């Protein structure tokens, strides 16, 4: 019996020691991760990447004797490039924007544009690859404003659309001096939409009162749970029309050559169709455009990366889980205006 008690005490002590050691290691790891927590701009030299593709393919398609000669030639090219000053050369800066309904990528976009503007000059060019079906008005309005910062500095701006730049995505695109579009990419959708369910009748059926207090006649025109009056609904529709007018005015400002009455109907078009309606300037993929530019110029991809620390990830798990649950559902049901 005493032997069993001794073994139990020993096991408990061992467990406590292990627990203490693990706790200390976790604390140190959390502190170290928090200390290394940072956000940064990442740079990728696309012209070098494309050259590496060519060199790799060439190295595998020549004889052994030719391979030696190729290595010698590449070495000489590298030396020549290293000794050559690139200060006066035209640089192509590339930014990718992949938009969701909330235009979440605008937080990275503003940092990327700021980084580019610290170096770019009017003799350079900025290429933005936009992929977005649209979303909230204020988010895509801010995204378009970020691209305008480039144009207002007199720096040529090109937008490439490989898959979709509709509604808010097209709002961003029109800020460019030139819009390139893949043959089957979707562009246009110059319109505004808002939608929400209304549960007022359901609540009334089950004798559930919903009270909503506002100051200002049109503080809340329509809502998820409150009664929607004819006056409130009419005002809400007018607000949608006002937003559409702003959208059309913005598009017309940068692409006056378009027949606005024909294209500002909320419809979308594929690349070839969009070209005939002057929504885009050229049918061409971003891959082909950048590869061609890389033959004569430096092509620099700029990307802002936000690195979450381990502690942020750990503490954020519960919050994200809640957001994906009931709270997120309510949030998504709230009235929003979408471009």
From TrEMBL:
<keyword id="KW-0720">Serine protease</keyword>
<feature type="transmembrane region" description="Helical">
    <location>
        <begin position="6"/>
        <end position="33"/>
    </location>
</feature>
<dbReference type="InterPro" id="IPR029045">
    <property type="entry name" value="ClpP/crotonase-like_dom_sf"/>
</dbReference>
<dbReference type="InterPro" id="IPR002142">
    <property type="entry name" value="Peptidase_S49"/>
</dbReference>
<keyword id="KW-0812">Transmembrane</keyword>
<dbReference type="GO" id="GO:0006508">
    <property type="term" value="P:proteolysis"/>
</dbReference>
<feature type="domain" description="Peptidase S49">
    <location>
        <begin position="151"/>
        <end position="299"/>
    </location>
</feature>
<protein>
    <submittedName>
        <fullName>Putative periplasmic protease</fullName>
    </submittedName>
</protein>
<dbReference type="InterPro" id="IPR013703">
    <property type="entry name" value="Peptidase_S49_N_proteobac"/>
</dbReference>
<dbReference type="Pfam" id="PF01343">
    <property type="entry name" value="Peptidase_S49"/>
</dbReference>
<dbReference type="GO" id="GO:0005886">
    <property type="term" value="C:plasma membrane"/>
</dbReference>
<keyword id="KW-0645">Protease</keyword>
<feature type="domain" description="Peptidase S49 N-terminal proteobacteria">
    <location>
        <begin position="3"/>
        <end position="147"/>
    </location>
</feature>
<keyword id="KW-0175">Coiled coil</keyword>
<keyword id="KW-0378">Hydrolase</keyword>
<feature type="coiled-coil region">
    <location>
        <begin position="60"/>
        <end position="91"/>
    </location>
</feature>
<keyword id="KW-1003">Cell membrane</keyword>
<dbReference type="Pfam" id="PF08496">
    <property type="entry name" value="Peptidase_S49_N"/>
</dbReference>
<keyword id="KW-0472">Membrane</keyword>
<dbReference type="InterPro" id="IPR047272">
    <property type="entry name" value="S49_SppA_C"/>
</dbReference>
<dbReference type="GO" id="GO:0004252">
    <property type="term" value="F:serine-type endopeptidase activity"/>
</dbReference>
<comment type="similarity">
    <text>Belongs to the peptidase S49 family.</text>
</comment>
<keyword id="KW-1133">Transmembrane helix</keyword>
